[in-house]
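Changelog-adjacent note: as of this version, every example in the card shows the full chain rather than a window. The one below runs 347 residues end to end.
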Amino acid sequence: MDSSVAASAYPHADTAAAKTAAHPGGWLIIDKPLGVTSNAVLARLKRQWGWKKLGFVGTLDPLASGVLAVAVGAATRTIPLLNDDTKCYDFELHFGQQTSSDDAEGEVVATDDYRPSLDQITAAIPAFVGAIDQRPPAFSAIKLAGRAAYALARAGQAPIMAMRRVRIDGLEIVSSDQLPDCITLRVTCGGGTYVRSLARDLAVAVGTVGHARAIRRLQSGPAALASAQSLAQALESPRWIGLSQLLPSQAVAQIDQARWQQVRQGKAIALHGHDWRMPDGGQPSQQPSCASAIFPLKREHPVIVLLEDKVAGVGWLSLDPDDNGGDEQPVIWSPKMVFVDLTVCWK
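Full-length structure tokens:
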């Protein structure tokens, strides 16, 4: 949402209480600072604005910064729709010291004077791309016998972390200017991947020890750093992001009042080619006449319907079983979530 629309959401709000009353919910993309937990970000927003219900997608460690997608109020219902597990991080791998937490916060548990060359690091990277087995750090939020692993580690109980399969889509060198002691890398990975473990294991693969520093998340599912505002800015003036900007949708569909009444009752509706509007603002003459030509008919892809440019619901597409095809072949949109209050999640 642009700044003019964001401002108009609070036409008479001069206090946090007034803003809370005027705003039932939405999404914020926060650039989480170093040194605070993801839950602490929610606590500060809640304290500042009086919001009662918040949630986020993808926990960031205190020593990691970057994208944290935060849902407020009724928009917390849409968190499952944003649980795209693809993440992207930049991080520094420091050679010569292994720590108990695999980052700069932990105690040094091993040292090595050996430093790998750039060629050695480059040659080792391919082995870490694809489906790999990874041992999470002992200092992590993974539950063991009902307790977080980091609580056991801090109590000196040395938890044994089981290997888990994770997905690494890409790993590349961003900067080698600080070699031989440090190198900066970028990883694109699936959910559950620990950057700290990746740094530790890559150091071992090139014949030494190491740990991660300066971990920064650039992207979390559809939420990107380019859309983020600092926590300080969000505490001063929240910048709301439309649901249709966050969902991995190629298009959104407009419905009329008659079909809106069906949607409100939880009924499926037919969508035609002329109902669709592409996100880039393409003209109707540029739109395909067949809805199925616009969007891949896969139930795992959420599709947004709009009523007068406001998000009315999110659902999934399927082929119309009673249609025989043709230039105006409709598809059936079945509601997953319906927003009776059309101010909850903006376009």
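Structural remarks: Confidence is low (pLDDT under 50) at residues 1-18, 281-288.
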